[in-house]
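Q:
My hope is that you can spare some time for a protein that puzzles me. I hope you can help me see how the letters and the tokens relate. Thank you; the sequence and its tokens follow:
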Amino acid sequence: MMLPRTPSFRLDGKRALVAGASSGIGQGCAVALAEAGAHVVCAARGVERLQDTVDAMTAEGWSAEALVLDVSDLPAVTAALNAQAAFDVVVNSAGLARHSPALATQPDDFDAVMGLNVRAAYFLSVGAAHGMKAAGIRGSIIHISSQMGHVGGIDRAVYSATKHAVEGFTKSMAIEWGPLGIRINTICPTFIRTPLTQPTFENPERVAWITEKIKLGRVGEVEDIMGAVTFLASDAAALMTGTALMVDGGWTAD
């Protein structure tokens, strides 16, 4: 009897690009992919934190390099992708949040959050897919979205709108790129403890709201995302595209 075998979670010989890799979830994604054997190009705007991340990764014996890049600068993204060999895996963890009541939303804040979370994410996907198609790579594109791409939240009308948009274009791109063997999915975390979310955890009312909504009774840590990104990047997720992997402690189960 020939028994089935679990597809590999390893990424040996693969090239991965992680945008927003210098801290928080993006840094965790970069480490996870490198641990699984990929060569990881770590991209971010800030030179010092980015280089510190790469230095720490290579000190562990992993394969990584730094790429200073603002993903909201579309010509720079195109130039960077053209200068690199095509990627097997592209993870977009770059993001921005400027929370306020909807009645107090300022146009400049709206444009900034939309520009990075939607426009930049959209065209990074397109650029990555162009490279994969040209190289004949059956690749994986992964966006760090949010549970707020599936629900609403207090003071989060703009942020939630951007993540709903990411969920929408991911589904459409999955339909278009499926015949090319290019998969595109999202990871939707609950509140993860990072420098970006620290102001939220300093607000007792918000902490009470979060604690009540997360059924597992705790907020997320960066490590909670690392297995998910390795899975979606690997052959273990070969039949997954156009879907959202919820890492939300049960928030959206209601």
